[in-house]
Amino acid sequence: MAMAGKTFDRTQEDLGNMIHLEHVNVRVPDQQLATQFYVVALGLTRDPYLMVGLENMWINVGHSQFHLPTAAAQVLRGFTGLVIPDFDELPARLATAAERLKGTKFSYHVEASYADVTCPWGNRFRLHPPQEKFPRLTLGMPYVEFPVRQGTADGIARFYKEIIGAPSCVVSNGSVAAEVGVGLSQKLIFRETNEPLDPYDGHHIAVYIADFSGPHKKMLERGIVSEESNPYQYRFVDIVDPDNGKVLFEIEHEVRCVTHPMYRRPLINRNPAQRQPTYVSGIDARSF
Length: 288
Fold this sequence. Notes:
The chain is of the alpha+beta class. The protein contains four helices and 16 strands.
């Protein structure tokens, strides 16, 4: 039955072509320290099915992941945002993990509505409790934020809109940033800064897109496809101005299609509050 006089902003439910931020990949030299940080301190979950050996580890956070190949450390330029449902328990976990992380770059600062945490090798994270600014997300990866040179946000926003087909805009709230919509409640943020940028060390992100061939064709025309991985995936590194091809920022994108065998693979997320002395049957898994 129609609702007389009711109007809706239909653009609020538009997703665009880039529909899921699947993982952030940075190398780590020590799996024990990585376990102490990602599993013990942050309360996340090591994937029990894939990459369970010593050459790599995958860490689940809602429907997204961190991929942590074992090699010389990489540090993402910027930081990764996370939403966790048990934010009140985070300070105790961080304090418990701190002793085994002494002598590394591990640090943390907790405020009422967020916590800034640095991993043993310098990767930075901002953790949030579930809140209105991240609708429909109680556990997950709502954004990755990168620092970019002054004057590049507009070109970056146009790259994602015109080449990738993702909803993008330039915002100014104290600083100028390009915000790029990635599916449901996820974003890539490129914030302009006057600070010098660290050299790019090869870390990458993985995204799924619905129109797989359209962006690929546009990137081939501009010569920026860096790897033809397999039928389900390709990669690019350079974010360029769509008009003149000038490189604006470097971050490798692992671009996957929605027919990829691993698209929306169910990910196990544990309830980190479970303890042997206080075990409660039926709540081992975290629902989100």
